[in-house]
């Protein structure tokens, strides 16, 4: 209900002969014989009336006239506000694919004055384009368009159309976005954790999320075939008893109606762990001997560095052995050279003067004066 009040006062504080005329000067000149006008207050210095059930036709200029000497009058301009109807929000398509442009329209009808429209997507304000149209009954229709490119993060986000008007507050409507997008693919290692070595087992799980949900998940090996004994169960890949021939890139491919996406896992199998026993320590007593067990150590960071270290140790040992053999040969050569000598055989003692062997032996007992020397060497 709208109230229109006009008050007339005399200069000396007393009410003179009053004639209150309310006239509508906006193309209507009608006497106040409308039942919607009611007398609210009548006193020595005030006359107040009210107008109920205001309509757009009541808009105009009202005059209060005081017949005095000289006559006086006052004016009041009445503006009627017409709030808009419920805003209507529409979209060009209900489901939008990621990367495409969508258009949303919001319409506010039957307002006076024309309303203004703002846009919000989530907590971010967007700029739209608006058009204002005047209707035959001096009211206005406002239409606003919002265009933007959707991303997968926009799925489920509300787009809000806010209508601003002097006659209403917090007048709005909204529409939730539905965005379809390609799968997001990640690969999770079940076991082993850390470095992978020969003889171990491998389990990989492919996790794919998209809208709509991926209808197909496949495992492939880039530039080669998946090992023949590998087991693929749904999105899981299991390979047992690994060796270096399985090294390569394993790819999980997921697809839905929007498109296809993949993720890669690079498998690198290292040498199996080696055991290195510590030197055995023996303690002898009168009763028994105790031997400490070998200590098995793990090559926690086996790799090319550890292999180079092993080769260096082996090379050092070989060099020491070769050097020791050379020293031994030198010592033996010097020893043989110092033990070279001569000796006489019994056959050589007087053999030239004896007629037979017995005589030669007898003659040899006297010495070696007439015998020839024969040289021999021994070790």
UniProtKB/TrEMBL annotation:
It comes from the Eukaryota. GO terms for molecular function: signaling receptor binding. Residues 83-178, 183-263 form the Ig-like domain. The keyword Disulfide bond applies. The chain crosses the membrane at residues 312-332. The keyword Transmembrane applies. Residues 278-303 are annotated as: Disordered. InterPro entries: CD80_C2-set, Ig-like_dom, Ig-like_dom_sf, Ig-like_fold, Ig_sub, Ig_sub2, Neurexin-like. One of its GO terms (biological process) is cell recognition. It is found in: Cell membrane; Membrane. It is a single-pass type I membrane protein. Gene3D superfamilies: Immunoglobulins (2.60.40.10). Residues 278-297 have a biased composition (Low complexity). It holds the Pfam family C2-set_2. One of its GO terms (cellular component) is synapse. Keywords: Cell membrane, Disulfide bond, Glycoprotein, Immunoglobulin domain, Membrane, Repeat, Signal, Transmembrane, Transmembrane helix. PANTHER family: CELL ADHESION MOLECULE 1, IG-LIKE DOMAIN-CONTAINING PROTEIN. Belongs to the nectin family. This is Cell adhesion molecule 1a.
């Amino acid at each position: 209900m709208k109230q229109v009040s006009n008050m007339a006062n005399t200069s000396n504080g007393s009410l003179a002969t009053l004639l209150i005329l309310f006239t509508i000067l906006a193309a209507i000149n009608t006497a106040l014989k409308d039942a919607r006008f009611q007398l609210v207050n009548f006193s020595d210095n005030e006359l107040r009336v009210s107008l109920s059930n205001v309509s757009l036709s009541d808009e105009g200029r009202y005059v209060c006239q005081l017949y005095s000497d000289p006559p006086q009058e006052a004016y009041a301009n009445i503006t009627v506000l017409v709030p808009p109807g419920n805003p209507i929000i529409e979209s060009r398509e209900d489901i939008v694919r990621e990367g495409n442009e969508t258009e949303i329209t919001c319409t506010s009808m039957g307002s006076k004055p024309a309303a203004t429209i703002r846009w919000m997507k989530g907590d971010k304000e967007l700029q739209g384009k608006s058009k204002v149209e005047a209707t035959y009954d001096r009211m206005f229709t406002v239409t606003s368009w919002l265009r933007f490119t959707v991303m997968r993060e926009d799925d489920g986000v509300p787009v809000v159309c806010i209508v601003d008007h002097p006659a209403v507050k917090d007048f709005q409507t909204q529409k939730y976005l539905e965005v379809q997008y390609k799968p997001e693919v990640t690969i999770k290692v079940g076991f082993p954790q850390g470095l992978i070595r020969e003889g171990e087992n491998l389990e990989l799980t492919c996790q794919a999320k998209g809208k709509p949900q991926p209808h197909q998940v496949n495992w492939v090996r880039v530039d080669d075939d998946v090992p023949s004994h590998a087991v693929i169960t749904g999105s899981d890949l299991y390979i047992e008893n690994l060796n270096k021939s399985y090294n390569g890139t394993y790819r999980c491919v997921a697809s839905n109606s929007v498109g296809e996406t993949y993720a890669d896992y690079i498998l690198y199998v290292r040498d199996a762990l080696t055991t290195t026993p510590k030197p055995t320590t023996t303690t002898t007593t009168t009763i028994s001997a105790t031997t400490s067990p070998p200590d098995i150590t793990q090559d926690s960071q086996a790799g090319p560095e550890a292999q180079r270290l092993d080769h260096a140790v082996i090379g050092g040992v070989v060099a020491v052995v070769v050097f020791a053999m050379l020293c031994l040969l030198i010592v033996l050569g010097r020893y043989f050279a110092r033990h070279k000598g001569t000796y006489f055989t019994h056959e050589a003692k007087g053999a030239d003067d004896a007629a037979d062997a017995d005589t030669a032996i007898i003659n040899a007992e006297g010495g070696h004066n007439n015998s020839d020397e024969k040289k021999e060497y021994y070790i």
